Amino acid sequence: MNRFKTALAGLAVGLMAATSALAQAWPAKPVTLLVPFPPGGSTDSIARAIGPLLTKSLNQTFIVDNKAGATGTIGAAFVKRAPADGTTFLVTSLGPLVIAPHLIKGGVPYDALKDFDPITVAVQAPNVLVVPASSPHKSLADVIAYQKANPDKMSFASSGNGSSDHLTAELFWLESGTTGVHIPYKGGGPAVSDLLGGQVDASFQNVNTVFQHIKSGKLRPLAVTGAKRSPVLPDVPTMAESGVKNVDVYSWQAVVGPKGLPADVRAKFHAAVIAALNDPQTRQQFTGVGLEIVANTPEQFAAFQQQEFARWKKVIEVRKISAD
Hints:
Layout: H1 2-25, E1 31-35, H2 42-58, E2 62-66, H3 73-81, E3 88-93, H4 94-103, E4 116-132, H5 140-149, E5 155-158, H6 164-176, E6 181-184, H7 188-196, E7 202-206, H8 207-215, E8 219-224, E9 250-258, H9 263-277, H10 280-287, E10 292-293, H11 298-319
Parallel strand pairs: 1-2, 1-3, 5-6, 5-7
Antiparallel strand pairs: 3-9, 4-7, 4-8, 4-9, 4-10
Helix pairs in contact: 1-9, 2-9, 4-11, 6-11
């Protein structure tokens, strides 16, 4: 029995030493920041902004790899199956983590709440209801009055079924007692293009996506979905200020890893990501277009994900929304 206890103790010491050595050596080889969407979007830009800073601070190459498809769930599933050794992380929007599990019939190939180690919510941005500059609507009150007088006449563009901009419109209709026509596109670019051309009447877009078009006068902002006014659109009221409650919606990007990361590796990576997000140049780059730095703890992120998961589940079920 004594020999057995001695062997167990020796094994435990060995495992602790191996874990400690892994953490001290990490990252011993290049690390992949996997983005589950095509290049050029908000999520991709965030990964590419922090990647070089992580390379510098951790003395190892951080590579951004795009693995798009199935509303981000293909890339998320890939990271779920990756070894939990700190060589692969997922930089994602809220879609794969809190929306797709309720939207895709038959479910997704991962448990969004259990199969990942949360690192941090990197940034968030409210959506803004915008109309073309030629639109007769000058305020949210104008839009609501028109929709009530003309049910299912006003068209709202989105980047696709189940996207943040689509669900924001559905929540707006639910809370304002109005109805509109949802026009889904294959991405935010085509949706904004048709909005600028006047082919659609309105859209809830991320502030950072349409900020330059607002600044140039091509789009008119009517209300933001944040709990407070956006610093880059200080003259635009919130939905609540405009009389529509419970439409506080943020699009957000976050970083997660495969479940089971060594605690020391997870802590070291979290600290490096937070430092990268708070880099003065990066902060200026993000906040200048309406993104808000969140940079919270894994525990805060996990609690937030639970809340968002439940919230969008309810909206999707009540509005009977499904994926394409």
